[in-house]
Amino acid sequence: MALKKKSVFWKIYFAVGGGLILILCAWLVFLFLWLSSYEEVQPKYVAKEVFEKEYASFDAEKYVKQCKIDTDLFITTDEIVRLLEDAVDGKDIYYKKVSTGMDNRLKYVICAGDDSAKFASFYLSRRNVGTGPFKMKKYVVDKESFELNIGFLTKDLETESVVCSVPKGHTVSINGTLLSDKYVTKSDIPTDSCDHMPEGVSGLYYQEYTVNNVIDKPVIEVKNALGKTVDYEIIDGVYTVKPEYDSALKVQHSQWILEGAELYAKYTQYDSRVSNISFNQVAPYFDPSSELYEFIKTVDNDFVIEYDSFEYSDMTADEFIRYDNNTFSCRVSYVQKLINGNDVYTDHVDQTLYLRRVDDKFLIYDMSVN
Q1: Global pTM?
Q2: CA dist., res. 132 & res. 215, Å (int)
């Protein structure tokens, strides 16, 4: 008996059914692969990986080194590490996602013990270029996104305002942070020297830095224009740097200047019996083109108290300041005693002398009383 041939209908039916089944299977495989890839790029897995690497076995010193610390507290790195270690000591460290208002950037905060102790955070950003066969954009952590919550770490610390007064051209650092010009509250503050400079020569100017909210007991470092660390004093609550004195000038000129200062003192206390110093003896120490020279030359110096003898003691020339290669000043002080019988008239003299180069030598062109 001959087999009955299948009808065309059933042939088409089974062919279409088989094709649909194959398409469905392929689609299910595709969907499975797509869902797997989608699941792999979910940020929760990246966040967990970052947390386990950076925070699970927390190293405060290592973490601080990779964070960009942006604070006006001028706190040292060592102090931040200490505060961070105190914040996490014995606490359960965990992380949680917080809202940033952006779809392509997610923020996670790190807590120690409870949700209020948010001491750090990091961000995950979605890559612009997708990865894998489906080109799905994956979230990655940017090392520059690791942050410290300085406000939380320092909330219980006392702060103070720091004012520094330094010669212009000097730099100031507080707790290792160099102060920028934005902290300059007073600039080009003239000293007395500015009133005694020749034309074209600048006297000594100061500038003042003010920084608020500095952690108590700050470490202050001041450097001069050559990068050398210089000392400071705290005067009326202000960290003050005195002018730099030139020891070479002192060695070279102090003896000559003291000779001139003593002759000048004797000349101004002229007495034909005891101190008959003439102007010609004083003149070689002074600049003949200066107003001071003319004043000394014409001053009426014989109206002084009567005295039988005199003494000069404690004569010092110090605080030499170089303004340029041709101009400097120094401070001269001494005790002058005029003796008349049993009466002793004591005068403590304290002057600043200003000298400039005239031909091949330095001469005094101006002076002021301190």
Answers
A1: 0.68
A2: 50
